[in-house]
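job 3f2a | input accepted
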Amino acid sequence: MQWSYPELRLRLIKAGLWPEGRMARLACYLAAMAGLLYAVEKLLGLLAPSWGDHLGGWVGFLAFLAAVLFFVLAFRWLKRRVLWRLRNRLIVTYVFIGVIPAVLLVTMAFVTLYGLAGQFAVFLVTSEIHSQLRSLEAANAAVSNELAARLERGDNPAAESLAGLRKRDPAWGRRQVCAWYGDKPLPLCNEFKGAALTRPQFVKDRFREIVRDHNELHLRVATSLPIKSSTLTVVTSEPFDKELVGNIATDLGEITLFASGIMLNPAAAADRAAVTRAAASSSPQKSDGRISINTNQQGTSVEVDQQVLQPTFTVGTLPGPADRLDLEIPLAGTSLTVVDWDTGERRQRALVRVRTRPSVLYGHLFAALGEFVQGVAYILIGVGIFFAIIELIALIIGTRMTRTVTAAVAQLHDATRHVDRGDFSHRIPVKSSDQLADLAHSFNSMTASIEKLILEQKEKQRLENELAIAQEVQAQLFPRQVSELESLEVHGFCRPARTVSGDYYDFLTASSHKLILAVGDISGKGISAALLMATIHSAVRAYSVENLPQMREPVAVGAVAGSGRVLAAWPEGVEVSPGALLSLLNHQLYESTPPEKYATLFLGIYDGRSHHLTYSNGGHLPPILIGKDGTIRRLEAGGTVVGLFDNMTYEEGAVEMQPGEIFLAYSDGVTEPENDFGEFGEQRLIDLVRENRDLPLPEISQIVTLAVENWIGDNEQPDDVTLVLARAR
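job 3f2a | predicted structure (729 res):
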């Protein structure tokens, strides 16, 4: 299947293998450059080998840098993929906190035990060697005392006087004793095996060391005693050979001796003279204590103080393992100081390496305890089992606690995904009583609250939609096209405090020369006030247009028929009574609304021929007439509010409007807004209209409403703002 470059790139990006970061691109560039240089190196190697050799270092350097960068990128990728889940993160945390320290402690314990075991094996060998030296020293002291006693008595020492030592101790068959009285050797050496010893010039008092004499190693002790006018020197020696070391290795394991110039292997006997000459011609060197072991195809060699030591001999065998943990103890060895018998210098070195197992060493260590060792072993096994049980219980408890935490987090993560999809009905099952359970309860409570809030929001949205429709309907109730009279121009403005308004104004053309002005304010705000406003609007239009009462005299509403009230159409020339109209509206509202609902209403009828305004005010803020000279007249004739009491009559008033005089009617939403300086007030309203009286009425209305807005500032509009203006021509 052939993939285009964009498809291949997209697939690699989805798999997380496309180098997107700077480090990834740099690693790829370095790897590609290293591969290119490698190819060039091989090509140049075929053409000119000397040229290709110069590129090998650069290839290795670039490959190393690319490998380091790829390792860092792999670690980041593994961290991002593996440690994303909380469970994996906790597991890694537990591994670093609990497992790795425990493994390190156990490893350190095993390394320490094996290291101590190696040192203990070396201690067994060296202690046995020192035990042999002490035994020689004791025998040498006995011989020295016996010879000193004979010399002090004046007797001649003879070999027969010490013959009993050979019979009492079989080890004397390997030993050699020589004595000198002054510079004169005593007749003792010939009675023992081995070549005659030379008198040591460096022994002043006592001497006990491993010596190198005639290219052979010996355990040798010497004692120098003053006798009369001369000195008695006694030397006892025993070969440090396979037999002696083999006795040490019998119950221990395999012991290998490395010594400089000591070749006890018969096959290498021909080389002894050459080794001796090389050792004799070698100049003394200062010991720095450095030891290194080299193993190759020819065998194992040891370098001590820059001297290469070859294996001299090996005795014993490595015992078999007692169990799987009974491993061979590595690096169990120590260096031995060897004294040159000819010069007394301690520049010679030898090394003893031991191969054994812990079971053998523990046998030597606990040999003195007898059967108590088995009890100690059982106690240690019991303690180990107890610790293992505790560790297992801790592991189970930790796993269960981890699962509770990770399960709770997984449930929260799944719940958030449901919330992200808009499913707020999802609930987290709670089965515990801990902090995580409290968090789950909080999440469930939060989602329930959000679900309830969304339902409320939907309900609120539905109500707002209905209110928007109500606002559109109410906007249709206000006069949209006003048929002005030739002698009167009018303008009205209403801005609700909420979605719908409880204020009311209307302009009704009664005839070609009469215009009805209505301004009202409903108690309360919102839907209820808007519904009452619609009721008043409908009643005013119904009574004034279809069945407007014709009044010769004001009468009380509710009287029986024939009491002076006649309902008829409004023919031309009929006089209309605003007071009677208010009485009818008052009775209707009183009968159809709750007791606490009422309205203020101003009704005025303007006659364009006579320029008279007949009005009646039902509890509304008195409208104001502002003359051209700035004088004001208040229209206060009328009565109380509409709809609060029944059987109410309303007085009427009449004024003549002069040309240029402005009629101003308003609601309390214009004059009552407050700020830090107090209310907006009626006087400020009058001053604004008086100052701008010559402007068109819409501009005067805009100036007044803008002034009210600035007065309110950032505060919420407290009430509906309604303004009605009329100007006589």
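job 3f2a | Residues 263-289, 546-574 have pLDDT under 50 and may be disordered.
job 3f2a | closed
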